[in-house]
Amino acid sequence: MGDDKNVLTPKSTFILTLFITLVVFVIDWLTGYELQFFVFYFIPIGVAGLRCAPVTAYFIAILSGISWLVSDWLSGYPFRHLSYDIWNNTIRIIAFMVLAFAFVKIKYLIEAERKLSNELKASLSEIKTLKGLLPICAVCKKIRDDNGYWQQLEQYIAMHSEAQFTHGFCRECAAKILEDAGIDSPGKKVEPEDTPRTGSIAHRL
Questions:
Q1: What is the pTM of this model?
Q2: What is the span of the domain harbouring residue 12?
Q3: Which site from 23, 40, 119, 143 is most exposed, i.e. has the minimal number of CB atoms within 10 Å?
């Protein structure tokens, strides 16, 4: 969407739909019942459904049906019975209400699609993918970049992705470090030393 200053507010849109409905009503009345202008009532209903609250769209739908009825009366449309006119106008209002519901549904679907699209764009902007063959040293595990320089694995991945590293020790390496330092690992069982028996000592003596 463009600049918000150029977008009509819901109140301004409601006033606009009232004006369009009035214009269609006047044209429909002036041209008489021989020319049909009911399709033009779709315009304010569609605008209200896409740009205003649902209750506003339904109000414009009912107002359009009433405007059509009044234009028929003022044009002198020859109905054999008043009930026929009421029945026709009821059908018109129902059709306009269904049309308003359709536009409201379309509005919600567009908003949901736009929200999902923005979330997807935000997610994609945070993702960097490593592709291709990465030359890595078989001993020190350094990676050679495109310029021929060898870099630490953590440094290379951090530069080419959004990943961040935190360091620790796996169980095997922790046990090896403690063993090299002469410290028994917590999980290591200490074998008890064999203690000579008293009888054996006496026998030796």
A1: 0.55
A2: 4-125
A3: 119
